[in-house]
Write a sequence for this structure.
Protein backbone atom coordinates (compact mmCIF):
# COMPACT_ATOMS: atom_id res chain seq x y z
CA UNK A 1 0.00 0.00 0.00
CA UNK A 2 1.49 3.31 -1.07
CA UNK A 3 0.81 6.29 1.18
CA UNK A 4 1.09 9.63 -0.61
CA UNK A 5 1.32 12.88 1.33
CA UNK A 6 1.58 16.63 1.12
CA UNK A 7 3.85 17.98 3.83
CA UNK A 8 5.93 20.89 5.04
CA UNK A 9 9.10 21.31 7.03
CA UNK A 10 7.51 24.40 8.61
CA UNK A 11 5.68 23.19 11.75
CA UNK A 12 3.47 26.29 11.75
CA UNK A 13 2.34 26.29 8.12
CA UNK A 14 -1.41 26.75 7.76
CA UNK A 15 -3.23 23.58 6.68
CA UNK A 16 -5.13 25.54 4.02
CA UNK A 17 -1.91 26.51 2.16
CA UNK A 18 -2.54 25.54 -1.48
CA UNK A 19 -0.35 23.70 -3.95
CA UNK A 20 2.17 26.03 -5.54
CA UNK A 21 3.46 27.37 -2.24
CA UNK A 22 7.24 26.82 -1.97
CA UNK A 23 6.65 25.43 1.53
CA UNK A 24 4.34 22.63 0.36
CA UNK A 25 6.11 19.44 -0.65
CA UNK A 26 4.99 16.00 -1.80
CA UNK A 27 6.14 12.56 -0.84
CA UNK A 28 5.49 8.96 0.05
CA UNK A 29 5.64 7.49 3.54
CA UNK A 30 8.02 4.54 3.83
CA UNK A 31 8.40 3.24 7.38
CA UNK A 32 9.49 6.10 9.61
CA UNK A 33 10.63 8.23 6.66
CA UNK A 34 8.93 10.59 4.21
CA UNK A 35 10.59 10.43 0.80
CA UNK A 36 10.12 13.54 -1.34
CA UNK A 37 8.61 13.35 -4.82
CA UNK A 38 7.98 16.13 -7.34
CA UNK A 39 4.18 15.83 -7.20
CA UNK A 40 1.39 13.88 -5.54
CA UNK A 41 1.43 11.37 -8.41
CA UNK A 42 5.15 11.25 -9.23
CA UNK A 43 7.17 8.05 -8.85
CA UNK A 44 10.54 9.80 -8.58
CA UNK A 45 12.39 9.88 -5.26
CA UNK A 46 14.31 12.69 -3.60
CA UNK A 47 15.35 13.75 -0.12
CA UNK A 48 14.31 11.71 2.91
CA UNK A 49 12.94 13.20 6.14
CA UNK A 50 12.04 11.55 9.49
CA UNK A 51 8.25 11.47 9.88
CA UNK A 52 8.56 13.27 13.17
CA UNK A 53 10.30 16.20 11.45
CA UNK A 54 7.54 16.97 8.93
CA UNK A 55 4.11 18.56 9.25
CA UNK A 56 1.57 16.47 7.37
CA UNK A 57 -0.82 18.62 5.35
CA UNK A 58 -4.20 17.57 3.94
CA UNK A 59 -3.25 15.09 1.18
CA UNK A 60 -4.97 17.18 -1.50
CA UNK A 61 -5.50 20.89 -2.18
CA UNK A 62 -9.08 21.05 -3.48
CA UNK A 63 -10.63 23.94 -5.34
CA UNK A 64 -13.84 22.72 -3.68
CA UNK A 65 -14.93 20.10 -1.18
CA UNK A 66 -18.06 18.28 -2.34
CA UNK A 67 -19.98 16.42 0.36
CA UNK A 68 -22.82 13.91 0.32
CA UNK A 69 -25.47 14.03 3.03
CA UNK A 70 -27.51 11.09 4.29
CA UNK A 71 -25.75 8.52 2.11
CA UNK A 72 -26.13 5.71 4.67
CA UNK A 73 -29.70 4.64 5.34
CA UNK A 74 -29.28 4.17 9.09
CA UNK A 75 -27.74 7.64 9.44
CA UNK A 76 -30.67 9.18 7.57
CA UNK A 77 -33.01 7.38 9.95
CA UNK A 78 -31.18 8.50 13.10
CA UNK A 79 -31.72 12.12 12.06
CA UNK A 80 -35.38 11.48 11.23
CA UNK A 81 -34.97 11.73 7.45
CA UNK A 82 -36.14 9.57 4.58
CA UNK A 83 -33.59 8.29 2.04
CA UNK A 84 -33.38 10.45 -1.07
CA UNK A 85 -33.86 9.42 -4.68
CA UNK A 86 -30.71 11.35 -5.61
CA UNK A 87 -27.51 12.23 -3.72
CA UNK A 88 -27.90 15.19 -1.37
CA UNK A 89 -24.98 17.51 -2.18
CA UNK A 90 -23.47 20.37 -0.20
CA UNK A 91 -20.10 22.15 -0.21
CA UNK A 92 -17.39 23.00 2.27
CA UNK A 93 -14.92 25.80 1.46
CA UNK A 94 -11.18 25.11 1.21
CA UNK A 95 -10.77 27.33 4.29
CA UNK A 96 -12.40 24.49 6.29
CA UNK A 97 -9.43 22.15 5.68
CA UNK A 98 -7.71 20.54 8.62
CA UNK A 99 -5.18 17.70 8.77
CA UNK A 100 -4.19 14.75 10.92
CA UNK A 101 -3.15 16.05 14.31
CA UNK A 102 -4.81 19.41 13.79
CA UNK A 103 -7.01 20.90 16.50
CA UNK A 104 -10.74 21.14 15.76
CA UNK A 105 -11.87 24.51 17.09
CA UNK A 106 -15.47 24.63 18.29
CA UNK A 107 -16.80 28.10 17.39
CA UNK A 108 -18.56 29.95 20.22
CA UNK A 109 -21.62 30.50 17.99
CA UNK A 110 -22.60 26.86 18.56
CA UNK A 111 -23.45 24.65 21.54
CA UNK A 112 -23.01 21.25 19.84
CA UNK A 113 -20.11 19.94 17.78
CA UNK A 114 -20.53 16.46 16.21
CA UNK A 115 -18.09 14.07 14.51
CA UNK A 116 -18.91 12.41 11.17
CA UNK A 117 -16.33 9.90 9.93
CA UNK A 118 -16.30 9.39 6.16
CA UNK A 119 -14.42 7.95 3.20
CA UNK A 120 -12.89 10.65 1.02
CA UNK A 121 -12.28 10.52 -2.74
CA UNK A 122 -9.49 12.57 -4.33
CA UNK A 123 -10.16 13.47 -7.97
CA UNK A 124 -7.31 12.84 -10.41
CA UNK A 125 -8.37 14.62 -13.60
CA UNK A 126 -10.98 17.08 -14.85
CA UNK A 127 -14.44 15.50 -14.87
CA UNK A 128 -17.57 16.77 -16.58
CA UNK A 129 -20.70 14.94 -17.75
CA UNK A 130 -19.41 11.40 -17.22
CA UNK A 131 -21.21 8.12 -16.68
CA UNK A 132 -20.88 6.18 -13.44
CA UNK A 133 -18.55 3.73 -15.17
CA UNK A 134 -16.30 6.48 -16.50
CA UNK A 135 -16.40 8.25 -13.13
CA UNK A 136 -14.54 5.44 -11.35
CA UNK A 137 -11.46 6.22 -13.47
CA UNK A 138 -11.46 9.79 -12.14
CA UNK A 139 -10.59 8.66 -8.59
CA UNK A 140 -6.92 9.30 -7.93
CA UNK A 141 -7.10 7.79 -4.46
CA UNK A 142 -8.86 7.44 -1.12
CA UNK A 143 -8.39 9.13 2.23
CA UNK A 144 -10.11 9.57 5.61
CA UNK A 145 -12.40 12.54 6.30
CA UNK A 146 -14.12 13.88 9.40
CA UNK A 147 -17.01 16.17 8.48
CA UNK A 148 -17.29 18.05 11.78
CA UNK A 149 -20.74 19.59 12.14
CA UNK A 150 -22.36 22.22 14.34
CA UNK A 151 -25.55 20.23 14.80
CA UNK A 152 -27.59 22.95 16.49
CA UNK A 153 -26.87 25.40 13.66
CA UNK A 154 -27.66 22.76 11.04
CA UNK A 155 -31.13 22.39 12.54
CA UNK A 156 -31.58 26.12 13.08
CA UNK A 157 -30.46 27.34 9.66
CA UNK A 158 -32.04 24.73 7.39
CA UNK A 159 -29.22 25.13 4.88
CA UNK A 160 -25.83 23.96 6.11
CA UNK A 161 -23.24 26.64 5.32
CA UNK A 162 -22.46 27.69 8.90
CA UNK A 163 -22.90 24.22 10.34
CA UNK A 164 -20.54 22.52 7.90
CA UNK A 165 -18.26 25.27 6.59
CA UNK A 166 -16.53 26.67 9.67
CA UNK A 167 -12.73 26.74 9.95
CA UNK A 168 -11.19 23.32 10.83
CA UNK A 169 -14.47 21.50 10.03
CA UNK A 170 -12.99 19.28 7.31
CA UNK A 171 -10.18 17.08 8.60
CA UNK A 172 -8.50 15.03 5.88
CA UNK A 173 -5.66 12.53 5.95
CA UNK A 174 -3.27 11.44 7.11
CA UNK A 175 -2.45 10.51 3.51
CA UNK A 176 -3.97 9.38 0.24
CA UNK A 177 -3.79 5.78 -0.96
CA UNK A 178 -3.95 5.33 -4.76
CA UNK A 179 -7.12 3.71 -6.07
CA UNK A 180 -5.22 0.73 -7.50
CA UNK A 181 -3.91 -0.14 -4.02
CA UNK A 182 -7.34 -0.25 -2.38
CA UNK A 183 -9.84 -3.11 -2.15
CA UNK A 184 -12.92 -0.90 -2.04
CA UNK A 185 -15.36 -3.66 -1.06
CA UNK A 186 -13.30 -4.44 2.06
CA UNK A 187 -13.33 -0.89 3.44
CA UNK A 188 -15.08 -0.06 6.72
CA UNK A 189 -15.48 3.40 8.22
CA UNK A 190 -14.92 3.45 11.99
CA UNK A 191 -14.99 6.50 14.23
CA UNK A 192 -13.64 6.35 17.78
CA UNK A 193 -14.03 8.99 20.49
CA UNK A 194 -11.52 8.65 23.31
CA UNK A 195 -10.87 5.08 22.20
CA UNK A 196 -14.55 4.01 22.11
CA UNK A 197 -16.02 2.94 18.75
CA UNK A 198 -19.01 5.13 17.87
CA UNK A 199 -19.38 4.41 14.14
CA UNK A 200 -18.63 1.21 12.23
CA UNK A 201 -20.02 0.41 8.79
CA UNK A 202 -18.99 -1.09 5.46
CA UNK A 203 -18.74 1.35 2.56
CA UNK A 204 -21.00 -1.09 0.70
CA UNK A 205 -23.85 0.32 2.81
CA UNK A 206 -23.67 3.59 0.87
CA UNK A 207 -26.89 4.25 -1.00
CA UNK A 208 -24.89 6.02 -3.72
CA UNK A 209 -21.43 4.54 -4.39
CA UNK A 210 -18.48 6.66 -5.57
CA UNK A 211 -19.09 6.26 -9.29
CA UNK A 212 -22.70 7.32 -8.96
CA UNK A 213 -21.75 10.32 -6.82
CA UNK A 214 -19.07 11.57 -9.21
CA UNK A 215 -21.32 11.09 -12.22
CA UNK A 216 -24.20 12.94 -10.53
CA UNK A 217 -22.00 15.88 -9.50
CA UNK A 218 -20.36 16.07 -12.93
CA UNK A 219 -23.73 16.79 -14.56
CA UNK A 220 -23.81 20.26 -12.99
CA UNK A 221 -20.28 20.99 -11.70
CA UNK A 222 -16.85 20.43 -13.23
CA UNK A 223 -14.54 18.54 -10.90
CA UNK A 224 -10.87 19.50 -11.04
CA UNK A 225 -7.72 17.52 -10.15
CA UNK A 226 -7.25 17.57 -6.37
CA UNK A 227 -10.92 18.16 -5.58
CA UNK A 228 -12.22 16.21 -2.59
CA UNK A 229 -15.50 14.34 -2.25
CA UNK A 230 -16.70 13.28 1.21
CA UNK A 231 -19.02 10.33 0.62
CA UNK A 232 -21.26 10.54 3.70
CA UNK A 233 -21.22 9.23 7.24
CA UNK A 234 -22.65 6.03 8.79
CA UNK A 235 -25.01 6.03 11.76
CA UNK A 236 -23.65 6.69 15.24
CA UNK A 237 -22.95 10.43 15.08
CA UNK A 238 -22.79 12.27 18.38
CA UNK A 239 -21.54 15.31 20.31
CA UNK A 240 -17.99 16.13 21.35
CA UNK A 241 -16.50 17.99 24.29
CA UNK A 242 -13.32 20.01 24.60
CA UNK A 243 -10.34 17.66 24.92
CA UNK A 244 -12.01 14.72 23.17
CA UNK A 245 -9.79 12.74 20.81
CA UNK A 246 -11.52 11.68 17.61
CA UNK A 247 -10.16 9.04 15.24
CA UNK A 248 -11.49 8.01 11.84
CA UNK A 249 -10.08 4.60 10.96
CA UNK A 250 -10.41 2.98 7.55
CA UNK A 251 -8.39 -0.23 7.40
CA UNK A 252 -6.34 -0.29 4.22
CA UNK A 253 -6.14 3.51 4.21
CA UNK A 254 -5.15 4.85 7.63
CA UNK A 255 -6.20 6.64 10.82
CA UNK A 256 -7.09 10.34 10.98
CA UNK A 257 -6.83 11.77 14.48
CA UNK A 258 -7.89 15.16 15.87
CA UNK A 259 -8.49 16.75 19.27
CA UNK A 260 -11.29 19.20 20.05
CA UNK A 261 -10.01 22.59 21.19
CA UNK A 262 -11.79 25.17 23.32
CA UNK A 263 -13.99 27.80 21.70
CA UNK A 264 -12.22 31.02 20.92
CA UNK A 265 -13.50 34.52 20.31
CA UNK A 266 -11.93 37.27 18.23
CA UNK A 267 -10.79 40.25 20.33
Amino acid sequence: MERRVRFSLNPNLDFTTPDGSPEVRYGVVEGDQVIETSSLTSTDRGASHPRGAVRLMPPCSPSKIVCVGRNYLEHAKELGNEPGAEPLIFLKPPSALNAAGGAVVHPPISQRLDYEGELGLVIGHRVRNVSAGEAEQAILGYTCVDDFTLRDLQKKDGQWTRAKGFDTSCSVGPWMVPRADVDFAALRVRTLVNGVVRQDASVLEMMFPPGAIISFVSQFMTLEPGDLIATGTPSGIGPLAVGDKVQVQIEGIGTLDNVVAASTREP
Summary: Residues 241 and 260 are 7 Å apart (CA to CA). The two ends are 46 Å apart (CA to CA). The mean pLDDT is 96. DSSP finds five helices and 20 strands in the chain.
